[in-house]
Amino acid sequence: PAFVIEVCYSSRSFDLGPKLRLYERAGVPEYVAVLLLEKRVEWRILRHGRYELLPLDTDGYLKSPSLPGLWLLFPLDEKRLHEVLQLGLAATQPE
Fold first, then answer.
1. Using an 8 Å Cβ cutoff, are 28 and 37 in contact?
2. Where is 18: in which H helix or E strand?
3. Does residue 75 have a cis peptide bond before it, meaning omega lies within 30 degrees of 0?
4. Degrees to nearest 5, angle at CA 73 with 77 and 26
5. Strand partners, 45
6. Which of 33, 49, 69, 77 has the fewest CB atoms within 10 Å, i.e. is most exposed?
7. How far apart are CA 46 and CA 73, in angstroms?
8. pLDDT by residue (tens digit) across 10-64?
9. Confidence of residue 81 (pLDDT cuts 50, 70, 90)
């Protein structure tokens, strides 16, 4: 797969342990873990065979480097949701 996203609750140690290493070895370019108990998201991208955490954009959201328009605003900010949606859609349009 080119992209994996998982919602982690009771399986956090498995998802961020053995499963994360498996995806890394398999060469999955992007892996997102939604950590419900911590109320945060960890988005990893594969660089030189190793996962690195994707930093927040200066506007406070995460953007997929390989899937244009796939952005994540977390935690949810309903006031900014429409704005971020429009920006993401615009990013997928050809110039």
1. no
2. helix 18-26
3. yes
4. 155
5. 30, 52
6. 49
7. 21
8. 777 888 899 999 999 999 999 999 888 888 889 999 999 999 999 877 777 788 8
9. low
**Contacts (Cβ under 8 Å, ≥6 apart) of 71:** 61, 62, 63, 64, 84, 87, 88, 91
Model confidence pTM above 0.85? no
| 67 pLDDT above the threshold of 90 | no
Which one, of 25, 74, 75, 71, lies nearest residue 51 by Cα? Answer: 25
Given a contact cutoff of 8 angstroms between Cβ atoms, the answer to whether 44 and 32 are in contact is: yes
Q: Taking a C-beta distance cutoff of 8 angstroms, is the pair 88, 70 a contact?
A: yes
Write the single-letter amino acid at 12: R
Mean pLDDT of the chain: 84
For 11-14, which contacts have Cβ atoms below 8 Å and span 24 or more sequence positions?
A: 12/37
- Residue 15: Cβ-neighbour burial (10 angstroms; 0-12, 13-18, 19+): buried
